[in-house]
Task: structure prediction
Amino acid sequence: MKLYLGVFSHRDDSNFQFTDHIENCILDISSLEDNGIDKVSNFILNSCELKSRPCLDYNKCFNIIKFLYSKYSVITSPNLIKIQSFMKMYKGFPVYMVLKDD
Result:
């Protein structure tokens, strides 16, 4: 399982394109150590409700990342900076988080 953060393609009414569809893998859950995989999987699948649908709420995506970094320590500081930059850059666009079986 992999967790992705992305932004949907966005055009205005006059067909001016602001962004293409972008999707970045931010966490490979299957690569976590045995003792952390269950906690992180449970958090993502149950608490975050990403088992059945993507998260389309910007603030919820932000908070999920915050927990993965601060509580579970599965996101490194350099990756957190990249993720925060991505989210800041696309704050006004349809940002989403999705779980995929890759």
User: Anything to note?
Assistant: Residues 8 and 24 are 12 Å apart (CA to CA). Residues 2-100 form one domain.
